[in-house]
Amino acid sequence: MSQVHVVNHPVVAHWLRILRDKDTPPHEFRRALDIVTHLLLYAATQDLETEPVSVETPLETTEGVQLKSRVGFAPILRAGLGMIPAALRLFPQAQVWHLGFYRDETTLQPVEYYDPFRHKACTVDVAYILDPMLATGGSAVAAAHKLKEWGVPRVVFLGLIAAPEGVALLEKYHPDVPVYVAVMDRQLNDRGYILPGLGDAGDRQFGT
User: Best label site of 129, 168, 198, 200, fewest CB within 10 Å?
Assistant: First the structure.
């Protein structure tokens, strides 16, 4: 599990507790998700490539840096949508591709219903898959495959909570994809939900 990074920070843990609470209303859930996404991205982007530039302060010229890596975000519909506002505040120039997968409740396998990459050339250096839950891992594996097939040189998964089963599946098929999460939970139940988890992240966000 060398590619799994659990962001163990007291502020992250505080907001994660709010996200887990079954009584947290949707508007507070969205706010907590936004804050934790911001903190996770801070950790997950620490190795982005930069280049030196000169900058004029009010007093003199000095040296600074600017981001060189071209960044893209791939939120998995629909739960990943709530992670986009924080992502775009940090990277307003980033591209966003919505990946449409739903989970077949019988087989627990991902079913694709929207592909944004047809007939387009890859224009980024690194892409971050955004999905609050890494549960069975099926959607994450499919998303990573889709991004690599499109030609993205580096793919990273970013989420709130991971289950060991999902991490194992992602590592099996994409061992080069780093995983950044707030916590590693215990296991999946027989319906493929993470325990203790926080329920359905899409339903919790949108009150459905």
Answer: 168
Whether 208 sits among the annotated catalytic residues: the reply is no
Residue of 107, 115, 176, 186 marked catalytic: 107
Which phi and psi (to 5°) does residue 180 adopt? -120, 120
List the catalytic residue out of 31, 34, 78, 103.
Answer: 103
Structural domain containing residue 23: 4-206
CATH code of 175's domain: 3.40.50.2020
Q: Which of 24, 31, 125, 200 is catalytic?
A: 200
Task: Please say if 185 is a catalytic residue.
Answer: no
DSSP for 165-176?
A: HHHHHHHHH-TT
pLDDT tens-digit profile of 118-147?
657 888 999 999 999 999 999 999 999 999
Least confident of 31-40, 71-80, 95-104, 171-180: 95-104
Count of structural domains, the chain: 1
Residue in this structure with the two tokens 């930069």, named with its chain if needed = 50
Q: Encoding tokens for residue 205?
A: 């966000």
Distance CA 184, CA 149 (A): 28
**What average pLDDT does range 95-117 have in this prediction?**
71
pLDDT at 44: 97
What is the end-to-end Cα distance of the chain in Å, rounded? 35
107 is catalytic: yes
- In the predicted model, what is the mean pLDDT of residues 98-127? 73
